[in-house]
Amino acid sequence: MMRTALVTGAARGLGALAARRLAAAAWDVVAVDLDTDGLARTALRSPNMHVRTCDVTDPDAVADVVAMAGPVQRVVHAAMIAPAAPALEQPLAEVEHVLRTDVLGTVNVVRATLPGMLERGRGELVLCPDHPVPGASAAAAASAAVAAYTDALWAEHGNQGVTFRCCRTPAGVSARVVLDAIDRSLARPAGELHVVPSAGAGLRGRLSALPTRRSPAATVTPR
Question: What values do phi and psi take at 123, rounded to 5?
């Protein structure tokens, strides 16, 4: 029996690679994005991948996709945006768009998929916000919100058979490295809640200027 995975943001980058990897590993993959051309490229030569155009900010559209998919065993939610702009200059409409896409979109995906996982007593929910960096304050705020939301989900449902992961994906770290870190973490269901892939020296310098906070578990980095 094939396992079903839902991958959002699947038209490019992390989401596209996640969808391809899962399809290659014999998962039945539902790949979601607004970019139909990008989805077509992702699904090329993957007969067990099904593409759906969907706006994650629309709860009804997300619910329809999940209903079509059937029982979902893994979610990789990578439909996040991070436009760069100085914090005091970014247009308010753009800030609202980022928060709606990254935060409300996450809530919509979780609400559409987590109840079924809890009912079945198993599943893997992976949320992939961007790691906060200077020059992307709206995305940084959204990333913090998604990380805190993951903490809350884990606190409420962490003992009900579902594995939760929040992977804050640094710019400049390849999608392959990020997914390798996620896969290693998922191989240890009782392991780390927050996954931070290893960053290069230049990126580590930029990240070191940012405040850090404790999470319910340690981080995992590629070896």
Answer: 150, 165
**Whole-Å CA distances, 203 to 22, 127, 173, 209:** 28, 21, 9, 10
Q: How far is CA 64 from CA 58, 146, 221, in A?
A: 10, 23, 36
pTM of the model: 0.88
The structure tokens 């007969």 sit at 47
pLDDT, greater one: 220 or 85: 85
Range of the domain at 128: 4-207
What pLDDT band is residue 200 in, cutting at 50, 70 and 90? low
Is 222 a member of any domain?
A: no
Indicate which CATH number applies to the domain containing 93. Answer: 3.40.50.720
Asked if residues 47 and 98 have their Cβ atoms less than 8 Å apart, the reply is no
pLDDT tens-digit map of 26-62: 999 999 999 999 999 999 989 999 999 999 999 999 9
Spatial distance between the Cα atoms of 35 and 179, rounded to a whole number of angstroms: 22
Burial of 170 (0-12, 13-18, 19+ CB in 10 A): buried
Residue 121 belongs to what H/E stretch?
none
Flag whether 213 is in a domain: no
Q: What one-character-per-residue DSSP string does 181-206 give?
A: HHHHHHTSTTS-SEE-----HHHHHH
Radius of gyration, CA atoms only, the chain: 16
